[in-house]
Amino acid sequence: MSKIVLADDHLIVAQGIAGILQPEHEILAIAKNGEELVELVKKHKPELVITDISMPGMTGIAAIAALKRVKNDLKIICLTMHDEQEYAEGAMSAGALGYVLKHEATEDLLKAVESVLEGKKYISKSIQVDEAAPTLSARQLSVLRLLVQGKSAKQVAEELFISPRTVEFHKYTIMKLINAKTTADLIQYALAHGLVS
């Protein structure tokens, strides 16, 4: 039985989620926004967090990044109504392992919890996460998109909550993967694969 903290600004939704998860899992607490979620995680030390994305104040994605700084190995699932690829990629880049749509929660949530607790990724089937560049991870895609926008390694680092050295490492890895010699090659690749508009 795993210990879980939930976050959703609609209590009735959170109680519904708890109903799906119990009795197999223990719900330690329910947060109604990102700030409260971070505090409850510090207090209860759960193995898993299930959070909405759209909440008042700190969003779910900002909370994920904050939680990973508190406890790097924390397993996180986003449970949301946003079926857009950008949201899924943003959540995964911030550190979530699972991304489940609310209207598919009854079928998907328990499967997602099982996968994520084993350290595997789980994304609802109806979301098409960019497969145009299968060699690049969600984090590498985020770095690439920001670099293509003309941002410096320092700016990319600030936006993604990582160090400039990590940005440089990702850039170097991407260039090796796609056989790019210059930043111009990177930009060309990103445009050719529809990774940036």
From TrEMBL:
SMART domains (alphabetical): HTH_LUXR (SM00421), REC (SM00448)
Pfam families: GerE, Response_reg
UniProt domain HTH luxR-type: residue ranges: 129-194
Signal peptide: none
Residue intervals of the Response regulatory domain: 3-117
Keyword line: DNA-binding, Phosphoprotein, Transcription, Transcription regulation
Ranges in a coiled coil: none
Post-translational modification 4-aspartylphosphate, affected residues: 52
Entries under InterPro entries matching the protein: CheY-like_superfamily, NreC/VraR/RcsB-like_REC, Sig_transdc_resp-reg_C-effctor, Sig_transdc_resp-reg_receiver, Tscrpt_reg_LuxR_C, WalR-like, WH-like_DNA-bd_sf
PANTHER family: NITRATE_NITRITE RESPONSE REGULATOR PROTEIN NARP (PTHR43214:SF41), TWO-COMPONENT RESPONSE REGULATOR (PTHR43214)
Descriptive protein name: Response regulator transcription factor
